[in-house]
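dumping the sequnces here before i forget
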Amino acid sequence: MSNLERRPDEELAGGLATVSAEPVRRVLQPREVPLGGPRAMLVRRTLPHRGLRSVGAWCFVDDYGPADPAESPMRVPPHPHTGLQTVTWLLDGEVLHQDSVGSSALVRPGALSLMTAGRGISHAETSTPSSPTLRGVQLWVALPDEARETAPAFEHHDALPVHEVGGLSATVVLGRVGDAVSPATTYSPIVGADVQLAAGGGGELPLEPSFEHAVLALSDGLVVDGGEVSRGSLVYLGCGRDRLALTGGGGAARGLLLGGEPFDEELLMWWNFVGRDHDEVEAVRDEWQRAVAGEETRFGRVEGYDGGALPAPALPGVRLRPRGRP
Ligand code: MN
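..and the predicted 3d for all of it:
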């Protein structure tokens, strides 16, 4: 997905982004962001947040739908990324992914689409009319400095391991939960798991204590560490936990566990780029604009997409500053 906020620089404003070395329980509310167009789909964004830059290397969390793709289709034209991996995880519906390394893949619920932008990639995403409902999350993982120049790549995983305990079932998207290890390629110590709870069910997830963790509530009625949270909230849990209690309230509940080793590099996130400083972001933006104009660039070309590429927004009049984790 493309970050279509009209003034993406505003994301840099405000707030401390402190890593908590101790367990905490801080509930962050999402903000609604239109994805552009006359019948824009609204997404609920919880990262980056004024109060939290990242959780491990997870640096971008959008939760979208349920929406009727006939009424408000997702149609994101070819756009670039650098310095990150995109994790596309659907709860309902179907999205066609096309990219500049030649991939054309149908993303469906339960299957992971993982795109490593590395030094530069472009892709398009289009919902298909095959399902009456589209619902999903779009996540970005920042690449550590030594992996930022890696070659762009795309991988698709249909068979992900599941950690089950009590009435809790955790599909491991990245990293590991207990003995369940995802086959997906990662570049920093990280975990991501889709946790489903049967009505009245619950259990404890084993966690890596050196990681910081958070849970995105994918349904109402999810009880995280003893407190119920509403759908769309992100519960930041800090570091230092070796387990986490998750239960459903009255009915079935669902949440997304995100965690990782605290990412201590400064990041400059602007539009679809995860860089380190203003000059770098300005250079890749200029290169993308040349790609839109038809030049051969690091971003390649998305074959088979019916339409033009998405131009970058203008840079703000001030120098962009990276954001750290004090
Ligand atoms: Mn994208």
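Residues 1-2, 79, 81, 86, 123, 272 surround manganese (II) ion (CB under 6 Å).
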